[in-house]
Amino acid sequence: MSRKNVDENNGNASEMPKKCLNGDIPQGMPLAGLVSVIHRMYGIYVNSNKPSEELTAGQFPFIMRLSFEPGRTQDELAECFLIDKGTVARAVRKLEDNGIITRRQDPENRRKYHLYLTEKGRRIVPEIMALDRRWEEELLFGFSTEEKEHITGAFRIIAEKSHKYARSHDKEEISG
After folding, report:
1. CB 46 within 8 A of CB 57
2. Burial tier of 105 (Cβ tally within 10 Å: 0-12, 13-18, 19+)
């Protein structure tokens, strides 16, 4: 089965341009598209090189956040990542089932649970960080140290601005 796309001029299906298959990125692609490509390729890389078969790239942010901020609740993670509570609940359940995180009941509110990495989870963190470091080294190969710092700094600023902008336009935030 061949890859198809819709010709913008006449709506007919045509073969996907070879550029899409070999990594050539069209000039003029918007920033969101570029970030999307990087994110998707990172997911493919992680899922091919992950430290444990039971993990997925989508679980890495939860593990890393809990490594830096132990004791977060599911609601706090949902708010932090701007994702729905059901998605967080499913990820947390899988991580708990795999022995990577544990829940501890809040003594003041029995309906609230704080999340912590288990010993197994703490052992995975350096492996995730090494995987991320290899990814970044490969992507930034050929750039000077100064250029790498500039790129990383620019992405940090863009990430922070996008988080603030998304929050300010979140329908639940605005109406709630």
Report:
1. yes
2. exposed
Residues of the chain under the 70 pLDDT cut: 1-22, 170-176
Q: Determine phi and psi for 125, rounding to 5 degrees.
A: -55, -50
Long-range Cβ contacts of 93-100 (<8 Å, 24+ apart): 94/54, 94/59, 95/59, 95/62, 95/63, 95/121, 98/52, 98/54, 98/55, 100/54, 100/55, 100/59, 100/63, 100/124
Q: What is the pLDDT of residues 133-176, one digit of tens each?
A: 999 999 999 999 999 999 999 999 999 998 888 878 765 543 33
Contact 111, 39 (CB under 8 A): no
101 in the Ramachandran plot: left (φ > 0), alpha (ψ -120 to 50) or beta? beta
pTM exceeds cut of 0.85: no
Residues 115, 77 contacting (CB under 8 angstroms): yes
* Three-point CA angle 42, 43, 44, nearest 5°: 90
Euclidean distance between CA atoms 102 and 121, whole angstroms: 9
